Amino acid sequence: MSSSASIGECRWLLRNMGFDRERYNERSALVLMALLGLKPDDPWAGSGAPPLRTVEIMGWIRDHWGVDYKPNTRETIRRQTLHQFVQAHLVVENPDEPTRPINSPKWCYQVTTAALDLIRSHGTDRFGHNLRRYLSERPGLEAAYRQERDLLKIPVTLPHGTALALSAGGQNALLKAMVEEFCPRFTPEGSVLYIGDAGDKWLAFEKDALESLGVPIDDHGKMPDLVVHMEDRNWLVLMEAVTTHGPVDSKRHIELQGIFGDCTAGLVFVSCFPDQATMKKYLTEISWETEVWTADHPTHLVHFDGERFLGPYND
């Protein structure tokens, strides 16, 4: 085999590393060579491991390999190549900051040390031996990686004592505070019917209970981040976690009223912020007849107009 980088060589390499056809196609080969910092005919021995964002990967492919992927291809590259590279421990996410929020523009990928050592030997007499060793050790690497990611999970205890683990990053640190600080104070004895974890939208999902209240679930992407039912008052508290976007503004208020339009419980809308500084950025957007809570002052609520405090506004 040649000792210099080409699309065909990279596809051969990925195939022999155990990837399926979708992960050894041209797109995936180009993504890997960008992550290795390789240009056409560069030696495999010169492979590096620069941490790159998806847009930087696409830029490298365009500038050095002459393939210009359009902006709407970015999600395909993430979902159909990078996610599988991560799962196989070929690539690691955010090596500089593992707890980086999932919506951060700095989210990046880097080839692992074990994979880099193998790839640098491509085209040499050592490659066959190194490949066999890499494939034999990879299950252990994947297990270690899964354990590492599990250690980064955020433990959460629901009001009735059930323990869950939210994925690290994103808005989940705020979501933990909403469950453990807001709920005991303002929805005592309430039942958590839904939690929209950044990594697992269905982490807590009481489908039967929601349907019994007249709430059909068709698209979890439109659900609030946290839904709590206060059975004693028959209130359904709909809470949005706001870190970089998403308070209950007028548009979201109307949207939630539509989603929960057939609900037999009274609806309460709450925008939750990590702190007052973040809240101030959105004050002009927050809808009337809603509530606002900040995790840095967990014993207080801000009420936006209306004749009642923390209650539904039924016609």
Features of the shown structure:
alpha+beta, two-stranded antiparallel sheet, seven-stranded mixed beta sheet, 10 helices, 315 residues
Describe what you observe in this structure:
The protein has 315 residues and is an alpha+beta fold. The chain has 10 helices and 11 strands. It has a 7-stranded mixed beta sheet, sandwiched between helices. Strands 1-2 form a two-stranded antiparallel sheet. The longest helix is centred in the middle third of the chain and has 25 residues, at 127-151. The protein is elongated. 33% of the residues are buried.
The helix fraction, in percent, is 25-40%
Count of DSSP strands: 11
Question: What overall geometry do the principal axes of the alpha carbons give?
Answer: elongated
In round numbers, the mean pLDDT is 86
Beta percentage is: 15-25%
In angstroms, what is the radius of gyration?
A: 24 Å
Assign the structural class, choosing from mainly alpha, mainly beta, alpha/beta, alpha+beta, or little secondary structure: alpha+beta
Q: Largest sheet at a glance?
A: 7 strands, mixed
Strand order of the largest sheet: 6-5-7-8-9-10-11
> Total helix count?
10
Distance between the termini: 75 Å
Question: What is the chain-wise order of helices and strands?
Answer: HHHHEEHHEEHEEHEEHEHEE
Detail the poorly predicted runs.
none
What topology does this entry show?
Elements: H1 7-16, H2 26-35, H3 54-65, H4 74-87, E1 91-93, E2 109-111, H5 113-120, H6 127-151, E3 154-157, E4 163-166, H7 172-186, E5 191-195, E6 204-205, H8 207-212, E7 226-230, E8 235-241, H9 250-259, E9 266-273, H10 276-281, E10 290-294, E11 302-304
Helix pairs in contact: 1-2, 2-3, 5-6
